[in-house]
Amino acid sequence: MKVLGLDVGDKKIGVALSDELGLTAQGLTVIYRTSLKKDLEEIKKIIDLHHVTEVVIGYPRNMNGTAGPRAELVKRFARELYKFTGIKPVFWDERLSTVEAEKLLISGDISRRKRKKVIDKLAATLILSGYLNYKSKN
Predict the structure, then answer these.
(1) Could you tell me the fold of the domain covering 2-137?
(2) Which Cys pairs are S-S linked?
(3) In terms of CB atoms within 10 Å, which of 17, 67, 103, 124 comes out highest?
């Protein structure tokens, strides 16, 4: 059972994948967004290639727990992904995932240019990792 983690942004979608047992998350790729149809096709290819059975999408919340300004866009994307793949995505609180990813990359002394290339993939990995940890305890 592999789980796909997505960090959906305006320009890029960070993608992470779990191992077969659903215990660990690894960054997989970054999809540079062009159109909804092409984005969905790219994700579907990944789902089919890796035999993904579950999809987790980072859900943008404000620090007080309310839905963030991008929440409706992410919900709309999730609905379209469900229609396209038949897999109903699970939402996972992504508060501070990008901030945490940035801190990890800075602490690893990664240059700003390199950080821009991998931050979305790392954010997706953190989202997926949080979800997998939760599932393993419940």
Answers:
(1) Nucleotidyltransferase; domain 5 (3.30.420)
(2) none
(3) 124
